[in-house]
Amino acid sequence: MAGEYSFDVVSKIDQQELANALDQAKREIVARYDFKNVLADIKVAEGVLTIHTTDEYKLTAILDIIKSKLVRRGVDLKILGEEKREDASGATLRVTIKLIEGISADYAKTINKLIRDKFPKIKSSIQGDELRVSSKSKDDLQDVMQLLKSSPEVKLPLQFTNYR
């Protein structure tokens, strides 16, 4: 039997799926009757999603469309960070949403503590913007995965990679 099993906990955005979801959202917005001759601009640059539209109603509709497309493409909605709303020129509304990627050091400590409190025999170490979790039992590692997926304290989109 092997000595130890391990996996890495990461938080990454699949950029291709994000681009595909936003492209589908743009197509749906162009095709919808209630958006005919209405400003509805969606852009992503440097980890920030920017939506520019005419009013609050249109903004809510655009966000709903984007979220539904992200879910269909398998992108976790937890990537959408805090919304920052501001008035733009011409009585329009601009919203910027920071896209969350990577595990910060403070958040990694929180996840590390969560794992150690629940599973004292499992080792977890912080390695840059990811965590390495290792144990002698594969079942314990799967239990850790379930814990991290279901815990309300975890507010990041987590993926489990490098399973050995």
Number of separate strands:
8
| Secondary-structure-derived class | alpha+beta
What's the architecture of the largest domain, going by CATH? 2-Layer Sandwich
Give the count of structural domains: 2
Q: In one word, what is the shape?
A: elongated
The H/E string reads EHEEHEEHEEHE
Question: If strands are numbered along the chain, what order do they take across the biggest sheet?
Answer: 6-7-1-8
Q: Residue ranges: pLDDT <50 for 5 or more in a row?
A: none
User: What is the mean pLDDT?
Assistant: 89
What is the C-level CATH assignment of the largest domain? Answer: Alpha Beta
Q: In percent, how helical is the residue content?
A: 25-40%
Radius of gyration using CA atoms only:
20 Å
Query: What summary fits the major beta sheet?
Result: 4 strands, antiparallel
Number of helices: 4
Give the name of the CATH superfamily of the largest domain: YajQ-like, domain 2
Fraction of residues in β-strands: 25-35%
Secondary structure elements and their pairing?
Elements: E1 5-10, H1 15-31, E2 40-45, E3 48-53, H2 56-72, E4 80-88, E5 92-99, H3 105-118, E6 123-127, E7 130-135, H4 138-150, E8 159-161
Antiparallel strand pairs: 1-7, 1-8, 2-3, 3-5, 4-5, 6-7
